[in-house]
Design brief:
Layout (H helix, E strand, L loop, with lengths): L2 H17 L9 E5 L7 E5 L4 E6 L4 E2 L2 E2 L1 E8 L3 E10 L8 E7 L8 E7 L3 E7 L7 E8 L3 E7 L2 E7 L6 E5 L8 E8 L7 E11 L15 E8 L5 E7 L3 E6 L5 E6 L4 E5 L4 E4 L13 E2 L5 E8 L4 E8 L6 E2 L6 E6 L5 E8 L2 E8 L6 E2 L7 E6 L6 E5 L6 E5 L7 E2 L6 E7 L5 E7 L13 E9 L7 E8 L15 E8 L5
Antiparallel strand pairs: 1-6, 2-3, 3-16, 4-5, 6-15, 7-12, 7-16, 8-9, 8-15, 9-10, 10-11, 12-13, 13-14, 17-18, 17-39, 19-20, 20-21, 21-22, 23-24, 24-25, 25-26, 27-28, 28-29, 29-30, 31-32, 32-33, 33-34, 35-36, 36-37, 37-38
Length: 503
Amino acid sequence: MRRTNVLLLLILISFSARSQQGSVGIFEAHGDVGNNVMPGSAVFIPATGQYVISGAGYNIWGDHDEFQFVWKKMKGDFILYTRAEFLGNWIEQHRKVGWMVRKSLDGKSPHVNAVEHGDGLTSLQFRRTTGAQTEEHRLKLTKANILQLERKGDRYIMRAAQYGQPFQTDTISGIDLGDEVYVGLFVGSHDADKLETGVFSNVNISIPMKGESNENTGMTLGSNLEILELASGRRDIIYSVPYSIQAPNWTPDGRNLIFNDAKGTIYRFDLASRTPTPINTGTITHNNNDHVLSFDGKMLGLSSSVRELGGSIIYTVPIEGGTPQQVTPKGPSYLHGWSPDGKDLVFCGERDGEFDVYKVPAAGGKEIRLTTNKGLDDGPEYTPDGKYIYFNSVRTGLMQIWRMRPDGSQQEQITSDNLNNWFAHISPDGKWFVYLSFLKEETPANIHPPYKHVYIRLLPIDGRGEPRVLAYLYGGQGSINTPSWSPDGKKIAFVSNSDMTGK
């Protein structure tokens, strides 16, 4: 962390200790848990989205706890996510930062917490009943700074990682904290006479769908439109709505995002004013999340449901709106890419019961089948130099990223791991691609449902090296179906999900 940022944070902490009495960011309140604890502090910095929390206390362990807690009351199931770091060199190796769920604010309360210690120990801690001894499940990894804690009834699932790496997971069941609980971020110094400080970034609380989602799950949950900066991993939620919006495309001028809602309307979202405006698509109003901009940004390709033609049909329309022109004669046809010269479109189409990758002239004409292997082939997208089409295929068991020449020749597998990988999107300079990864246990290989735990990952264009996780999110279908790089290659846009109805 830069020295100027550290000084700013310390000034804000000092100010907070004097003035902050009520809510902190998305949380209702903050305070010290335990008896006669050295006063801590908490501040939310809107400009960076960070929470800076200082706490003292003997420990969070044994039969009672002492620490600083920033909390809100919640009911039902939830998913808690943050990137947590210590500020400054540690004094006590077991100082702690993390997420906590408590039955009450009493120091002896039952609780569950996902914690990182000062020496890097990462663990799931819990106290089953009031005044009982704290128990612990230690994860194999150390120095995790990505901490996620999910509640499903009386089961708590901890997921942790060093940023950029996949999760390690642990679970504890049978912890009854009641329906309404105190949920929040905490810092404890493990030294009653010292304060320690934690900085929490990308803090997010998601309310998952009730029950399990599948390929037929309707898109009903609320949506967060997010922008992620690749260099830092910083995520900014720039727009939230209590209904489904999907698949942002970034316009080549960098000024707008294009997305659809679940009702089939396409919107232009102005990044300066952060307001959406519907794009006129005439009578073509059942548009899904497979919409793509031409490389020059002048045309928009749409996929829109037409029941009498077999499902999704591909159209093109000027980016400013107008009367769409039909391209594919029958469905289902799901658009995923334009050729760099604007002459061809590539799409996933079902023909005779088999889903394959096809190419078709943008002006309409004969379809050319590019893949013939059994199993789903989907998500085709051209590289900016036009030399390759990247796509995803289930032909080797799990869904993986492949590429081929524009005529369908030289098909080769690019990713090979134990996750189901979808929708490779190529960076503007052609050196990288991002893609969506479903955890293997979350869903079968041949479907990409909404409302799952997924990663957005990054790889060099040739697939060599270890994938880097850019974002850990609750999403899936609709999160990043189509190209969403910023034109300068520094950011990506995507959608994460949460129930925002308050029910």
